[in-house]
Amino acid sequence: MELEKLISEVKILARSTGEYLKSEQTELKKRDIEMKGTRDYVTYIDKEAETRLVVALKKLLPEAGFLTEEATVENEIKAYTWIIDPLDGTTNFVHGDTPYSVSIALMKENEIILGVVFDPMLDQMFFATARGKAFLNEVPLTVSTQSVLENAYIGFGIPYSLDDKGEEILRNAMKQFRKCSFRIKGSAALEICYVAAGISDTYFHSGLSPWDVAAGAFILQCAGGKCTDFSGTDNYIFGKEMVASNGVIHQEIMKTVIQGF
Known about the structure:
This protein is an alpha+beta fold.
């Protein structure tokens, strides 16, 4: 399997899916929106976009399994597994807001080897393979050099179900509001890519699923950044929590915001 040829095809699929999302957003009616839980939306558009992706990705790599958000195909991990989110940022999407994105990752055994995240509104294609660096529209990505919390630009998210640990982290973050800037953009995949691009210095979130983070985390690592779970280990794809950073600020974020020391 030639990774560079494969990622070219995946980028085409991500773009076509993003164009479908963009065209459908203006037509979306409130009656078309379903609730999976409190603040957790899904539409026919999510499902149709995922179906299109699954059909096309099966043609590219017939032997691969899938992990998907909308369960349009049986979730099954194989030697090669596609991890896809057809619409990351659904809450933004259903309210006519941005950003939102298409996220596609390919996992070989337990390692991600390809990642693509596409923002159709800004026409931004973030991508990386195991054989190369990370890129935004063919321009190489580099993480920021911010090394301290003061004046840092920090992204974060609030999970649909906020547990005690999540509330504690938010309280820790609030104590830092006077010294740095915090932003919630609403698409985990893109916000991790913003760290890869040096826009944000770090990003943290709990209550995440593999399809939220797999592609973005891989892109960030290829750009020189770092990802861990809240314990500082590497269980961030399946462990439902992530701290993504430029690497040099990672320990201070872990200590000050995540652990609250």
